Predict the structure.
Amino acid sequence: MSDLPRTQHIIASGFIAAVGVTVAYISFTQEPSEAYLFPRIISSVFAVLAIWTFGKALLGRTKVGNGLSWDAMKNMLPGLLVMLVYVYWAAKGLGFYTGTTIAVFILISLYDPAPHGAVKSWIKRILITAGFMAVMYGLFALLLNVFTPREVFF
């Protein structure tokens, strides 16, 4: 059973490396190429780091700790479900900015330890979400001048 953390690390880093390579491949094969300049840079760096991590895991040269417990996996499950809904439906169906706003607000609400019965904590969550989205908009639309998916609302 002592090899479980290493196996978990190999599987997780292998999956992430596969996603990184797939995203990099997509960013290099889509048109118009100008729209994918920023994703190419980010996805290439992500893919290289993910492959490097996967290689270290295969060679057994990573410090993997104790692995993920069942409780830790249960704690991550709501966030993973929100991510799946966002990636496969909300980002395209609602638009990038609207879908991202909803996803970030839900994630903050799920994982914020502040009481859900206090108005002050909801105001804080709304302000954090608004600040995050302002930074996202400023980064993508104003600073980088890159295309974002434009669907129903934005």
